[in-house]
Amino acid sequence: MTDRKVYWVVPHDSKWQVKHSRRVLFEHVLKAVAVAEGRRVAKANAPSQLKVMREDGTIEFESTYGHDPYPPEG
């Protein structure tokens, strides 16, 4: 079974970064642009997940793309 890839949109200084495996893929001034880029990359590399952080470090939302190899039980 293939593990899904996890992409993150995280704040960094006054910008927003799209990251995968601790590597910065993109950096944008606007969060909305970073989220759109993160979605594009996550969809293109399914099965994957996009996790978007708030400025305070909490998770704002998560989206899963493609077949989810870890469906919730129940």
Describe what you observe in this structure:
The chain is an alpha+beta fold and 74 residues long. It has one helix and five strands, in the order βββαββ. It has a five-stranded mixed beta sheet with strand order 3-2-1-4-5, covered by helices on one side. β1 and β2 form a beta hairpin. The protein is globular.
What is the H/E order?
EEEHEE
Gyration radius, to the nearest Å?
A: 12 Å
- Please tell me what the overall shape is: globular
Helicity range = 10-25%
Query: How many β strands by DSSP?
Result: 5
> Which spans have pLDDT < 50 for at least 5 consecutive residues?
none
Counting H and I runs of at least 4 residues, what is the number of helices? 1
Quickly give the structural class.
alpha+beta
N- and C-termini, Cα separation:
21 Å
Main sheet properties: 5 strands, mixed
Strand content: 35-45%
Output mean pLDDT.
92
| Strand order in space, largest sheet | 3-2-1-4-5
Q: What is the fold's blueprint, element by element?
A:
Layout: E1 5-12, E2 15-20, E3 23-28, H1 31-44, E4 48-53, E5 59-65
Parallel strand pairs: 1-4
Antiparallel strand pairs: 1-2, 2-3, 4-5
